[in-house]
Every structure is written in structure tokens, then in C-alpha cells.
Amino acid sequence: MNETMSAWTPRVLSVLRIITGLMIIQHGMAKIIGFPVYPPYAAVKPLSLIGAAGFIELVGGALLILGLWTQPVAFILSGEMAFAYFIAHFPKGFHPLLNGGTLAIMYCFTCLYLSTAGAGPWSVDAAMKKA
């Protein structure tokens, strides 16, 4: 059983990266292109702090999905999510469940893990290493 699970570890790393990228890109898309429609992001100005975050999420999410430059991109996204937590959520109180910051923390640490673990075998990064 342990050998079977170990054999799947690199593949599951790729799945974690892809799903994380999909979850992050949706925030960037909502902020920058207005899809999906999310009322709190309806009036985001591109040159605002939230607009800059949206651009980072849009580009960073796409790069994570592809697995291109995964480690530096994931590190930048981890920092952006930490920044988002302390700017938007922490001022509402300490406890993440109560201040709405649970996802920001999860994104932050998932991206921090990806910044050290890499993209996994199903990625552009892995394909470039083989070439």
C-alpha cells in the first residue's frame, strides 16, 4: 500500500498545483475581466491595490495551471495571499474563521509548499527539464 501511495505522490503534487491555480485564477478573472460576476469586485479599478492583486492572481493562476515557472510564481502568490490576509482580513479580528481569512491562509501555505516542492511531472517545467 505504501509503495502505491508513494508512486502517486508526484502526480498528486501536479493535481494540487493545477487545482490551486484554478482556484486562484477565478479571483483574478472576477477582478480584472468581470467573470464570473462577483458583486464585491464589480467596480475594481485596474490600478488599485485590488486591481494589482487581480492581475497577480490572473497571471499567476494561469502559470500555476500550466506548471510554468512554478516555484517563483508560487512564492509570489504565497506572499500576495499573506499580504491579502493581513490587509483585508486580520483587521477584522484575530480568528480566521470569524474574519473570513481562512482561504487566504490556505492559499498562502499551499503556494508556499508549491514554491519548495515544484510543479510535479504533469507540467511545462517538467517537460522543459526533459528537453
UniProtKB/TrEMBL annotation:
It holds the Pfam family DoxX. Its main location: membrane. The keyword Transferase does not apply. It is a multi-pass membrane protein. InterPro entries: DoxX, DoxX-like_oxidoreductase. The chain crosses the membrane at residues 12-35, 47-66, 103-124. Keywords: Cell membrane, Membrane, Transmembrane, Transmembrane helix. One of its GO terms (cellular component) is plasma membrane. It is found in: Cell membrane. Belongs to the DoxX family. This is Putative oxidoreductase.
